[in-house]
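$ run holo --ligand "2-phosphoglycolic acid" --emit tokens
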Amino acid sequence: MRNKIVAGNWKMNKTLNEAMELAIALGEHRSEIADHVNVIIAPPALYLGHLEMIENPCFSLAAQNCSQHTYGAFTGEWSAVMLKAMNVHFCILGHSERRQYFFETDELIGKKVDACLEQEVTPIFCCGETLEQRNEKHHFITVLHQLEKALFHLSGDQMKKVIIAYEPVWAIGTGVTASNDQAQEMHAFIRQSLSNHFGAEVADRIHILYGGSVNAANAAELFACPDVDGGLVGGASLKVKDFSEIIKAASHA
Ligand code: PGA
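-- output --
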């Protein structure tokens, strides 16, 4: 049985004071987090060091991105080595905003996955189709190609250490959530694709999170789908009430 993961992607939001307040307020809901739920938050990278200092936190930290390189002349970048040294054990990779605005390709994202795994930083690999691709009924093949190009070079043991987030681009920040059936159908397809390539034992262990307009009202139903192992939450993770309701939904799932 896989545990549930609820990850909050704060994107480029909050000042440092606001970020600290939010993280501390989240801690006040600690008793509502069931043992089978892991909470992760991904603040702007600038704040990771500060949030890491919070005593006895109820969450783990993630970065929203990292370089494929280790050290060197790469102005503006940071590496998985640096994340590990700061006790940051997770890193979101290949978010659709990175793909769209920073031209990240699956090949590049695959290198970032390797860099994270080398440092024992768990990648949260994002995949998902655009509305156009879904309307053309290309959503399964689009996601399969993303998995193949960025992840299928890994060994089974490495793959077990990756978290996948299925985030249909048309659902991100739009208020339009995938239906439970759409989410379950794609998650089952992803798991089957992983099983075909890595074997059922690996595929059964992998967490597949759903992302795209998850909120307090729809989280419980989404998390009840058999192949939905939690959520990657953007907008609703910025408000403690909403995010704690989502964590509660995972705790009851
Ligand atoms: P959203 O963002 O919950 O605001 O749709 C999700 C994400 O981008 O990870």
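-- notes --
The two ends are 12 Å apart (CA to CA).
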